[in-house]
């Protein structure tokens, strides 16, 4: 293999600034390498072996990056956990992933402690960054350890949890190849090279910097940021996203590439003109977006402002996808692009038969060399497969020349601000309320977030509907469901529309809110 891969680059050029924390602290590659090495030695002393997993409940920044770099060179699975979740939800992931170590930042100490108890992970396997009651200080694991490169290195992977429509999330687990970590990292760089992104190292190349705009527990954020680092880019982290601050960071750090969602575009475009003109964003070459359909006018305005650096793709945690260059999108406004060189698309009807160009159907994808399974759920893995292809249930159509357009999404999934939210999980919690006879949850249009969560409730017999009942239902979710999953509004209905077999006709409830829209996304 060539000269890419973080560990290779860090040994050759230890002074290169590899990461910048949200508070502006800079970390040299050699320092990050030493930290990751010490962590491998510490966890091996704890008994971790190849194929084991570790979980991190940590904010954007260097702590999580070191966990990632350690796992990826020691043959472990690293699961970054959504910090909006509640203790029981986090605990489920820690237990299901069979984590042999659980790391929690003091910012999330309360839910982290609840999660540790819920998961049953042993006390000596819990480590805290800062003050986390009931957790060993992180220093106990790494202080005094060697910072030399560990022996017997082999590639690890991230194992992200993706929510299922049945409510419980599933870990997307890939088989480990057992190869050199730098060689594995170099293979990962195909992802960024598809967009034409260049390495920033070895020394002598034009420096590159990648801005991390979203929480690092998202698959795409980890993949794009992690791969940029493996190509020798400087990672610049933000803690909480802010539109003007984004422009300042692009200017000050000469950011060349980033990964965004359409909500970011909407907020940036909403800035006053004098603020927009204050910053030079000319360094940006690849502003890549995904995660939710981008309204055509918003993308058009971003292209007008930032020029032809806005790239789009469509993909899933499970692998495979499409890509649209700025030029292709201008020629086919609204497309999410054509299949990646190593990916194939199949659009089928309800019987699993391929449909002709222009006809909508369920989108199936496959990617060369990307075998995965939903951890512990062979049935779900097999059910979502068709002739080697898999689906996440999205609906779309292909043009004759191979451009994919999304026309609707898996009937139920809500995408709000780029986050996937699954109504079944919310319905399961609301339905437990004694004053609720029946409930349906779905997304309705939201100019800022793409979609907002709407609940429609059929009150129990004799219970008056109204704002008091709505407030009581929401209050009952406290500590049981992350606030990002709470309905923004609750409407009431006398009788829920269900078929005799009990199937909920959710579209009947949903359609009136979308009737003035061109597409039901």
Q: Cα-atom Rg, whole angstroms?
A: 23 Å
CATH superfamily of the domain at 414-514: ANL, C-terminal domain
Spans of at least 5 consecutive residues whose pLDDT stays below 50 are none
CATH fold naming of the domain at 414-514: GMP Synthetase, Chain A, domain 3
Widest beta sheet: strand line-up: 2-1-12-11-13-14-15-16-17
Quick one: biggest sheet?
9 strands, mixed
What does this structure look like?
- With 521 residues, this protein is of the alpha/beta class.
- Among the domains are: 333-410, Luciferase, domain 3, CATH 2.30.38.10; 414-514, ANL, C-terminal domain (GMP Synthetase, Chain A, domain 3), CATH 3.30.300.
- It contains 18 helices and 29 strands.
- The strands form 7 sheets. It has a 9-stranded mixed beta sheet.
- The model has no long low-confidence stretch (mean pLDDT 90).
Outline:
The protein is 31% helix and 24% strand.
Which helices and strands occur, and which strands form pairs?
Elements lengths: L5 H7 L4 E4 L5 E3 H17 L7 E5 L4 H13 L2 E4 L6 H10 L2 E7 L3 H11 L6 E4 L6 E2 H5 L14 E2 L2 E2 L7 E5 L6 H8 L1 H4 L15 E4 L6 H12 L3 E4 L5 H10 L4 E4 L1 H8 L3 H6 L7 E4 L6 H11 L3 E6 L5 E4 L1 H6 L6 E2 L3 E6 L12 E7 L4 E3 L3 H6 L1 E2 L2 E2 L4 E4 L5 E5 L5 E3 L2 E3 L1 H8 L5 E11 L3 E10 L7 H9 L13 E4 L13 H9 L7
Parallel strand pairs: 1-12, 3-4, 3-5, 4-8, 5-6, 6-7, 11-12, 11-13, 13-14, 14-15, 28-29
Antiparallel strand pairs: 1-2, 9-10, 10-20, 15-16, 16-17, 18-19, 19-23, 21-22, 23-24, 25-26, 27-28
Helix pairs in contact: 1-2, 2-3, 4-5, 11-13
Main attributes of the structure:
6-stranded parallel sheet, alpha/beta, 521 residues, 24% strand, Luciferase, domain 3, GMP Synthetase, Chain A, domain 3, 18 helices
């Amino acid at each position: 293999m060539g000269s890419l891969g973080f560990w290779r680059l860090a040994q050759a050029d230890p002074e290169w600034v590899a990461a910048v924390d949200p508070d502006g602290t800079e970390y040299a590659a050699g320092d990050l390498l030493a930290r990751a090495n010490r962590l491998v030695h510490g966890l091996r002393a704890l008994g971790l072996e190849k194929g084991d997993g570790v979980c991190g409940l940590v904010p954007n920044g260097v702590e999580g990056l070191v966990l990632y770099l350690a796992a990826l060179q020691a043959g472990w699975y690293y699961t970054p956990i959504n910090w909006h979740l509640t203790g029981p939800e986090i605990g489920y992931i820690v237990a299901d992933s069979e984590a042999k170590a659980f790391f929690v930042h003091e910012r999330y100490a309360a839910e982290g402690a609840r999660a540790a108890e819920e998961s049953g992970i042993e006390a000596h396997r819990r480590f805290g960054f800062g003050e986390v009651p009931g957790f060993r200080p992180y220093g106990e694991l790494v202080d005094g350890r060697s910072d030399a490169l560990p022996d017997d290195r082999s590639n690890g992977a991230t194992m992200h949890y993706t929510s299922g429509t049945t409510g419980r999330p599933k870990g997307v687990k890939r088989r480990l190849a057992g190869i050199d970590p730098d060689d594995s990292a170099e293979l990962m760089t195909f992802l960024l090279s598809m967009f034409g992104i260049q390495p920033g190292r070895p020394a002598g190349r034009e420096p590159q910097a990648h801005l991390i705009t979203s929480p690092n527990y998202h698959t795409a954020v980890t993949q794009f940021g992690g791969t940029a680092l493996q190509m020798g880019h400087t990672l610049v982290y933000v803690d909480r996203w802010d539109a003007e601050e984004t422009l300042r960071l692009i200017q000050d750090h000469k950011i060349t590439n980033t990964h965004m969602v359409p909500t970011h575009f909407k907020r940036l475009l909403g800035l006053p003109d004098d603020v927009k003109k204050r910053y030079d964003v000319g360094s940006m070459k690849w502003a890549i977006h995904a995660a939710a359909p981008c309204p055509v006018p918003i993308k058009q305005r971003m292209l007008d402002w930032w020029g032809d650096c806005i790239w789009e793709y469509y993909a899933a945690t499970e692998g495979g996808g499409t890509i649209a260059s700025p030029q292709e999108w201008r020629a086919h406004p609204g497309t999410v692009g054509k299949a990646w060189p190593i990916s194939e698309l199949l659009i089928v009807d309800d019987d699993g038969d391929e449909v002709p160009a222009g006809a909508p159907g369920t989108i199936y994808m496959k990617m060369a060399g990307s075998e995965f399974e939903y951890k512990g759920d062979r049935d779900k893995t097999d059910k979502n497969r068709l002739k080697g292809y898999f689906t996440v249930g999205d609906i779309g159509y292909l043009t004759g020349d191979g451009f994919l357009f999304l026309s609707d999404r898996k009937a139920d999934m809500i995408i709000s601000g780029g986050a996937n939210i699954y109504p079944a999980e919310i319905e399961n919690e609301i339905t437990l309320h004694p004053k609720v006879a029946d409930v349906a949850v779905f997304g309705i249009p939201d100019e800022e977030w793409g979609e907002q969560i709407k609940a429609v409730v059929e009150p129990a017999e004799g219970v008056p509907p109204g704002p008091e009942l709505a407030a009581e239902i929401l209050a009952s979710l406290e500590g049981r469901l992350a606030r990002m999953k709470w309905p923004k509004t609750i409407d009431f209905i006398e009788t829920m529309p269900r078929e005799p077999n009990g199937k909920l006709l959710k579209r009947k409830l949903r359609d009136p809110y979308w009737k003035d829209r061109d597409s039901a996304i």
